Each structure stands twice: as C-alpha cells, then as structure tokens.
Amino acid sequence: MPKPVAPGTRIGHVHLKVADLDRAIAFYSGVLGFELQQRYGREAAFLSAGGYHHHIGLNTWESRGATPPPHGHTGLYHTAILYPTRADLADALRRLIDAGIPLTGASDHGVSQALYLDDPDGNGVELYWDRPEADWPRNADGSLAMGTKRLDLKALLAEAPAV
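RE: above sequence
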C-alpha cells in the first residue's frame, strides 16, 4: 500500500473558469467578503481571506460568455470554504440572505455544518464550519459516524454577529 500523504497537507486554492469576471468578483468579494488581491484586466482575478496571495482564482481565458456545463457531466461538484467559527458561518448566511442568494441545501453532517448554493456561473459552493474533532460522532469501532440532518438555519442565523 502506498504511503499516505503528509497529515498537514491542505488544498490551497481553487481556480474557476467563469463567464463574466465582474459578476464573479461581485459574488465572491461583494457577497462572500473575500478581498480582491490582484486583477489582470478583464481576464483574471485573485481573491483571498486575510491577505493570503489567493484562495480563489477566477478567469475567463477559456470561458468568457460561456454557459455552465450541463447536468450529468463530469466536473467540479463544489468548492468548499471552511469558516473558523460557527458565528462566521452564520455571518455568511446573513450575507447570502441580504444579497437574495438562495440556498440549494443546508445540512448538519455531525462533523460539520454546511450551507450549499451555486455561484453566478453555476459552480457549486459549500460554506461550512467544522465542529471540534473531539465532538465528532463516532461508531463503536472509532470510525466516523457522519450523516446528513437538516440544519436549523434560524438557530444558525441567531449567532450572526451584529452588522
């Protein structure tokens, strides 16, 4: 069996093909709050949280004016954005509501709580918060006992920081 990847390995960023760069920036920056770090004219932009060089890359190099791929085809299922606290996830929910962006789902998976939606280009987006590892549900053999239960959005929204 091959040696597993190093435990500290993380996925560093996502780079998305978009149809309209300004529209994508308006969503990822204007709604979700990522900061624009650099822009290359009408073709590409890089956004981040906390001044990192980029967590999200956007480009129109092969996709300006394009339509999303049809359902039933391979491709990105969703980009998952991890928030540090449940209150931060609540703030993200408030931002979505304020912008009139509908959710496609909201789940409590035991290990995490997640909001699901589509960006303006039809790319799936998961916004989530992980519970502390000590609180993850486990089976008798110690394996994870993840599931999918309805997330109480009203209770989550009550934890959003005041604006």
